[in-house]
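Honest question from a wet-lab person: if I give you the sequences of every part of a complex, can you actually get the arrangement of the whole thing, not just the pieces? Trying it with mine:
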Amino acid sequence: MGIIRKTQSVEFLLAEFQSTEALSAIELIGRLDSKLNKTTVYRVLDKLEDDGVLHSFLDNSGIRWYAKCKSCTKSKHFDGHPHFQCLSCGKVDCLNINVYLPEIPNRQVTVSQILIQGNCEFCAN
Amino acid sequence: MGIIRKTQSVEFLLAEFQSTEALSAIELIGRLDSKLNKTTVYRVLDKLEDDGVLHSFLDNSGIRWYAKCKSCTKSKHFDGHPHFQCLSCGKVDCLNINVYLPEIPNRQVTVSQILIQGNCEFCAN
DNA sequence: AATGTTAATGCAACTTGGTTGCAAAAGTAA
DNA sequence: TTACTTTTGCAACCAAGTTGCATTAACATT
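Yes, you can. This is the full assembly:
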């Protein structure tokens, strides 16, 4: 069950996703503190994900990140791309590359989550 | 700072990792409920990870899993292999395969976490 | 524009996985 | 056996996320 009404909350949230950078639920709750309740933030993020507008994933410390989907629809979520997290500045974004997963004997693969961590271009050393 | 004393807690915990199956912290706390306090479980798991005896990773719902390391040492954690979670029965284990990650422009890669989800051999349909 | 319906929201209270501080217990070296 | 230090259990805490419910706001219909 996705979005069915164009509410202010939806607009406030979508406005935060102008760039391709991923944002954590926590970050969004902080940014929108004066405008939206945290429950609403979680609920709207959920619905936007159902609708294929955003996709979400976890980083290595267990917090959830959201990013704009490029080619997802309600029925088919295409979020097989890897995500990159800079261990220095903390920023997370989507990588526009394909990772080839080998066949795995005896198992049917449905989804894969790939999180790559390291230093981003601004934090190289 | 890893294990420096061979305590009962360490032995109880290691006894659970006979197979290569991964176990969640939650599962272990449940299994060892009569023997160990949950704080102790978390602390010993932590230390065993520091020592390169276990490695840990998160599944897609944010809970942490632990599995025995094959070739890790205190100094170098080799846990670059992918993990497989059966979406039907919930079991998680380590995959003994290599995933080739392409070069990513402008970024230094340190670690990668790959979680593959689908159906295991017993839950194929 | 006013109205009725139902989805969306805010709030407070709760759940869950995990952490912390501290006194008591258990390992270990001598 | 003693002395020292790590490890443990307990209770209290923390943070991310969820739930129930009364109120508010979209929006289709009139």
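Two things worth pointing out. Chain A touches chain B through 34 residues (CB under 8 Å). Residues 4-5, 7, 9-10, 36-40, 43-44, 62 of chain A lie near DNA strand C (CB under 10 Å from a C1').
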